[in-house]
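Help!! Second protein's tokens look totally different from the first
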Amino acid sequence: MALVAVLAALSWMSWRDSLDYAEFKLLTASIDRIRFYRRWTIIPSALFGIGGFGLLLSLGRIDALWDLPADFTKLIAPFEVARQSENSASDSLLGMAIGIALGLTVPAIIWRNRLKKMRQPVIGDIEALLPRNRKEIAASVPLALNAGISEEIFYRVALPILALEATGSVVASILISIAAFGLAHWYQGWKGVLATSAVGAFLFWLYLSSGSILKPMVVHVLIDLMGLVIRPAVSHYLANRDGAPGSSVSS
């Protein structure tokens, strides 16, 4: 069964990512960390973006990239009001604001002692992944952009349709895709799995309520940019401003 094969491959990838991340945490040179960022950008782009596109082609459901599949229409009745206002500026800004809020895992007031230690309160074991200087921040931008696009194609469109074909259940297909999205972040530990599963459920709600994959893509990109680019950059800036020891951001 295709679904079993895909889920088995995703499980193997999650295991490999955990091993890779354990090695990454031992890296100290920026050039090695940047290579890792690039690898984690290129490989998922091929597997989730191109792979998801190919999976939809093989299922004859490529139209799901721009039209919400008819199988899911029964679930969108509670969201009709949201869909009617989808094109309004206020609705778009609200969706983006919610995405940014989810991406913020630091308080509005950042404690001075936390800044001096250059540590941030985060959910899951991702602190080592956060960029440490300008070059690393720049290298993490494609990583954030790719994740927001390719993962949405795969986890919000291709995998649910494959699961629906296999199970015949819309609810089961959604739960499988949310669980798979969470487990793909196993390298972050169980807290990271729970957090990303919750984010995955929210992104699926955005997909159903808007009837388009574009909104969850935009919000996903914003969340990742906030976590991997904006927040580290702001933390470095504030630490430098406060004169924290060893806080200079090298170019």
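Here's the second one for comparison:
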Amino acid sequence: MRVILADDDQQSLETVRDFLKDITNIEIVAQCQNSEELVETVIRQKPDILLVDVQMSKKNGMDAVKECLMFHPQVKLIFICAQHDHALEAFQMNAIDYIVKPVGENRLYQAIEKAITIIMYERKESPKIIIKHLPIKDLHGISYIPQQDILFIEKSGKKCLIYTEDNVIETNENIGTLLNKLDDSFFPAHRSYIINLKKIKRIVPKNETYLAYFDHIDQQASISKLKINEVKDKISQFMKSL
């Protein structure tokens, strides 16, 4: 995703740039420090996402953003401003998000994730489904994993392992944080496991617990005997909704 940053505060620019540098599918193509430069750069670069503070010199910031939209209406807007003053006008322009400074890392990641999800949806021919992504921090930065590809997540020591059919992704994020980012297809079936209920092939009892099996992978996930009835009920609900 091609991104332009626009802010006349150099420290704010550097903070946002530092937060974004570890996101593997983000490319910062330009940085602008006044409104005229912003309009010229958007026309030339045609970014996917614009992160902008409207309190800039040489031209009214909101007018500049509106001018950008005239030339490049597909760009997704994320406003990063010192005050709430322009929030209403921003959302009337279909802004993805409006962040009030100081910018928090997780807050910015949430806005970027939302923008990426919408862009990916718009690029697909079929409008039937929006593919949700799980943003995770790994050894290489920030990665976005399609939630529909995740089979289960296992807590392993101080780390978590995210299992898909093809890969096992390691992250230092805790299991509770990951659960809060997932949709209702996922269930904490055990203190050390989050399971994608839509991906379970079969459930087999083993000693004092249960094992969930999945297609195309040899690893299993544990289900607590205290959670087994709730797991079965939720799977039944998913089956009825198909």
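Reply: Different proteins will give different token patterns, so don't panic. The chain has seven helices and 15 strands.
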